[in-house]
Amino acid sequence: MNEQPDPTPVDVSSPEPEDEVFPEERQLLPSFGNIRLVWIVYGIFGLLLLITFGFVTFQPIKVLPRVRLAPGYILTDQEGNLVNNEQFRGKLTLYNFTYTRCRPPSCRQLDTIMKEVQDRVDEVETYDLPVEFVTISFDPEYDTPEVLKAYAQEIGADTRTWHFLTSEDPKQVKRVVGTGFQVYFHKRGEGDYEFIPTIILVDGWGIVRGIYNGRVYLPTTDRILSHLNVVASEAAFSKGANRVGYEAAHLFLCYAD
Amino acid sequence: MKKLSIKKLWKLFVGILVVAVILFFGAYFVGTKLRPYAYHGMLMQSTEPPGDFTLIDHNGHRMQLSDYEGKWVILYYGYTFCPDVCPTTMMQLGRMMPLLGKKAKDVQVFMISVDPERDTPERMKEYVTYFHPSFIGLTGTPEEIADAAAPFGIYYKKKEVEGASGYLMDHTASVTVLDPQGRVRLIWPYGTTAEEMAEDLLHLMR
Hints:
The complex is a heterodimer.
Chain A: H1 23-28, E1 31-32, E2 35-36, H2 37-58, E3 68-69, E4 74-76, E5 82-84, E6 92-98, H3 111-120, E7 131-137, H4 145-155, E8 162-165, H5 170-180, E9 185-189, E10 192-195, E11 198-202, E12 207-213, H6 221-237, H7 242-251
Parallel strand pairs in A: 6-7, 7-8
Antiparallel strand pairs in A: 1-2, 3-12, 4-5, 6-11, 9-10, 11-12
Helix pairs in contact in A: 3-6
Chain B: H1 6-34, E1 42-43, E2 54-57, E3 62-64, E4 72-78, H2 85-99, E5 107-113, H3 121-131, E6 136-139, H4 142-149, E7 156-160, E8 167-171, E9 175-178, E10 184-188, H5 194-204
Parallel strand pairs in B: 4-5, 5-6
Antiparallel strand pairs in B: 1-10, 2-3, 2-6, 4-9, 7-8, 9-10
Helix pairs in contact in B: 2-5
């Protein structure tokens, strides 16, 4: 059977010839003039992807991970006063773990780094967040408050913000340093401990934010100072709409070096 | 200059309106649904559990924290003679449970006594079940309590006061949320409401 030719003449001067270009898409989504809804949707998702990619690549906000909880404790300071972890809430605290009979070079001390950080802490913007220093001795039998006080003077620590802590109860020391801060120490003999020299940065919530292990390489003062600024910045600015950016930085592991 | 017909102007107007509406709802969707959830508590990235502990539950049985692996565990450290902070927090936790809906069965709330001298298992049972029948009160020797509190950042200390009670306990007032692997995931400060707790927990449990 022969097909009959279509009697309807073709209108070559059709007013909207562009509508014929993507007939399938037009069935799914409407179009408005030259702007098609499908391209708007693609554009929004493309922009989202671009923003996410840009955030992950350029990391405009740097944070430090919230590693774990710092332990709760009550210990005795170099003046014989009781000191507890709640006193450091709302402050940045650098902890160091050692014993006073540890003498370099045979025994690695991080006190010198703590002292440098204390001396230079004013160079760092901490947005009025106080910075405190705590040295906990795991040799309570020898490191009495009097010994710790003499040691603090010897190394030139400013004891207004640097606290030297111990306990009469060795179990409490083990609970706080070993179990709580997870710093290894082991008594090898009288006045001789095997331990991993460590500095730990704790934020105002009592959360460990930085662990500087000095077993192989010594942590640098500059790095610790820069981390104080990173944590202080988050505490100061992670509020309201900015908090979303900081949480995104945690989510995408945008950690400071 | 070529004049636009009324029909084309109308189409242009509708087009702009639709684009504006899409952009508005797109921004709303991105801002509310796709943005990282901002917890009311402090989210942690712990990779290891802080540790296990052994205590006595309010039925007098020995329990270990690790017995509850697989559940979302909420730890609150307080004491039954506590005049204000503890009952307020326990009440919020009690109100949180029904807000969790079906997921409540995956959550176990423990109140750990920081006053083992006075908080017997019987007293703990009476106290915690008042706030919610599923809550479990824990107590132990002073040594066991110390081992259960320190790794979770909890401080407590006896404070002598004048009056019939004899003493109060100073203690950390935050609430700790552990995931089913025993890792600390969230810290709620004192004052977090039941609704905020439920919202955070439901988001974590997704």
